[in-house]
Amino acid sequence: MIGQLAEELDAHRKRVLAEHPDRLTLTELYNVLEKGRSREELTAREREIYQLGQVGVMLDLHGRIDHAVADAYGWPADLEEARILENLVALNAERHREERDGLVRWLRPDYQNPKGQGAAVQIAATLDIAADTAKRIVWPKAPTEQVHSLMAALSRCGRAVEAESLARQFKGAKSPRVRELLDILVSVGHARQINNLYAP
Q1: How many Cα atoms occupy the beta-carbon half-sphere of 48 within 13 Å?
Q2: Which of 11, 53, 108, 119 could form a disulfide with 102 if both were Cys (CB 3.0 to 4.6 A apart)?
Q3: What's the predicted TM-score (pTM) here?
Q4: How far apart are CA 9 and CA 68, in angstroms?
Q5: CA nearest neighbour of 60 among 1, 3, 12
Q6: Residue 16, class by beta-carbon neighbours within 10 Å (0-12 exposed, 13-18 middle, 19+ buried)?
Q7: Which residues partner with 193 through β-bridges?
C-alpha cells in the first residue's frame, strides 16, 4: 500500500512537471504544499502553482502515505512530530544494537550486500505448524494488532519462512493479507525478504 501510494505521488509530480516545464518546479510545488498544510494565504503566483500542479492531489496523497506509514508502525495517525522523532530514534537505537550483534536488515540486499556477507540467516522454506487448531492464535481484527501479532510470530520463528506458513499459525488469517502485511514490514525495516521467504 505504501509503495503504491508513493508511486502514485511520483507519477503525479512527474506528470504535472512535464505538462508545465516552464511554469513549475518541484521546489515551487512543495513550497506551496507546505503553505497549504499550514493554511497560509497564497499569493497569485502560488495559487497558479497550486492549480497547475494540482497540489491538492499531492496533499491528499501525502496524507494517505502518512496514515499508511503510521499504521505500519502501529502508531496513531495523529502522533505529534516530536513523538514521531522520539520513536524513530528509539527504533534506530534498536537497529544499532541488532547490527552490533550481527543482525543486519538489508532493505535492498542485492544492492547493499551483493556478496551476501554479514550475519547468516537460517532459511527454511516451510515452518512445521501444529495441526491442532486449538493451539493456533486467533487472527486479530484491527490492522495494528495484526501487524504486532505477525511481528511476534515472525520473531518466534527465528528463521526465514513463507507467508503461508505464518498464516497457518493463526485462526482466520488469509495468506494474501499476511503477505501484504509482511511486505509492509519489509518496506519499513521490521522484516527482511529473502526470495519468497520472510525473516525477522
Answers
A1: 8
A2: 119
A3: 0.52
A4: 14
A5: 12
A6: buried
A7: 198
Task: Kindly state the cell numbers that stand for 199.
Answer: 525473516
Q: Is residue 189 a contact partner of residue 95, using CB atoms and an 8 Å limit?
A: yes
Cβ of 72: how many Cβ atoms within 10 Å? 20
- β-pair type (192-194, 197-199): antiparallel
Give the cell for residue 44. Answer: 497569485
Distance CA 142, CA 25 (A): 41
Cell 516552464 belongs to 22
- As given in the structure block, the three cell numbers for residue 79 are 502522533
Question: Is the distance from CB of 197 to CB of 123 less than 8 angstroms?
Answer: yes
